[in-house]
Amino acid sequence: MSDAPLIPLFDVQLQQPHLDAVADTLRSGWLTMGPRTQEFEQVFAEHLGSRHAIALASCTAALHLAYLAAGVGPGDEVIVPAITFVATAAAARYCGAEPVFAEVKGTHDLGIDPEDVQARITPRTKAVCAVHYGGYAADLAALREVCESAGVALIEDAAHSPSATPLGDSRKLGTHGLSGCFSFFSNKVLSCGEGGLLATDDEDVATRARSLRSHAMTTGTWDRHRGHAPGYDVVGVGYNYRMDEPRAALLTARMADLEDDIAARRKLVHRYRELLADLPGVSLPYEDAEVDVSSCYVMPVIVDDHDLRDPLRAFMLEERRVQTSVLYPALHELSAYAGPARELPRSELVAHAELTLPLFPTLAEDDQDRVVSALADGVHSLTRTGAAAGG
Ligand SMILES: Cc1ncc(COP(=O)(O)O)c(C=O)c1O
């Protein structure tokens, strides 16, 4: 057991302007959704190049509203990748629909496979959700074709991918489908603790999302506070999915650093890729060129002998004090989503072989070297142990 300090999977370091933005907001006396939320929406919409940006309490809320606005309802199906965070699927269930899991392309690309999506479309399919895994674009051109020919909505789960694009296409992720859903959860590329946003160019989707985020009320508290509206009607069953002002102020302040943060992430990912390129026993998804258009939310590694993945994680944490994670367990292998006829061998392989290394803009190169040594030594010693036990 090493006594070296723990290298965490992610770290958030706020600067003085970020703290000032929050403190100013707290001093202003207006805390719930209001002018700072509007300002953040404007800044984010401009940055994305989308007509509408609707700030929300979380990306989960954004997915829920995106599915509802796409017409997803009881008895419908939403096709989602088997490798994603559970929110992508749970939001379908919130609508009374059932998530249908599609394969990812493989260990070289952890995005949803358009051919498998095509094969899983039924008359009940209402939407397909493309997750841009780790900030790397899903195969949007092919997915758009599949969705257009089937007449179903394409939703983007862009939780990991602010400011990223597909290779060879300058339009940002989150602007290619009917709606794009972003997360500002603590460990994300742009974070405020808890928060999300739905981006869309579609007027109806925007109107619906704005209404449903605040109980389908016809006016907001801020409008009434300013005397712009005397009262309100309620025109449906909505939710409290509002963002509040301190979070919005923090996000606007942090937007100024977003490109620098992503550039630092990309540099670290290129360095990881160089250091790990010739390491036997592990392989790296994606290509170098894709790193330059990705938001580089995480650094995924595939352990070729997937039986070694969990002992390797234990070695890295216990012997070398390096935190790792698994992004993600396959959804159909979780109790709430298990079911008959859910065999997805490529997704299962990824779920059992992937491990995620520490990555955040301020990760020091010395610490990155420690991560790489921990991984290399772990693979080496576990492979030897395995070989000795086997032979
Ligand atoms: C792919 C993906 N979708 C959705 C979410 C949900 O985001 P939030 O925590 O903002 O609801 C996450 C969060 O981790 C995610 O990784």
**What would you call the structural class?**
alpha/beta
Q: In the residues, how many domains can be counted?
A: 2
CATH superfamily of the largest domain: Type I PLP-dependent aspartate aminotransferase-like (Major domain)
Kindly state the number of beta strands. 12
CATH architecture of the largest domain: 3-Layer(aba) Sandwich
Q: What would you call the shape?
A: globular
**CATH topology (level 3) name of the largest domain:** Aspartate Aminotransferase, domain 2
The low-confidence runs, each spanning 5 or more residues with pLDDT under 50, are none
Name the ligand types: pyridoxal-5'-phosphate
How would a crystallographer describe the biggest sheet?
Answer: 7 strands, mixed
- What integer value in Å does the Rg equal? 22 Å
Number of helices: 14
**Average pLDDT level:** 96
Span of the ends, CA to CA: 28 Å
Sheet-strand content, in percent, reads 5-15%
**Highest-level CATH class of the largest domain:** Alpha Beta
H-E order:
HHEHEHEEEHEHEEEHHHHEHEHHEH
